[in-house]
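User: My collaborator sent over this chain with a note saying "see what the structure looks like." That's all I know about it. Can you take a look?
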Amino acid sequence: MSKIEIIAGRSYVNKSGRTERLVVEVGHHVPVQWLGSPETEPKGEPAVLYRQVRNGKTVYKEPGEYSMYLSAFRNWAAREA
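Assistant: Without extra context I'll predict from the sequence alone. Here is the result:
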């Protein structure tokens, strides 16, 4: 999905279509907790703040908010919902 822009306010699903995430914000100001090694962190890259809307058959009434780097979100996202 790297050729498609990730835009705030739109929902995206993974390849199977079972998980849906709503993008809240995209930008350098979004904080990310990096869990990988410091050498592999894509520092300086914008991040995505999103809400986990659906995971399989579970639809969240009050979805939690999470963040990840934009490149990781693009790798996860297969298409717009």
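A starting point for your reply to your collaborator: The first helix runs from residue 70 to 76.
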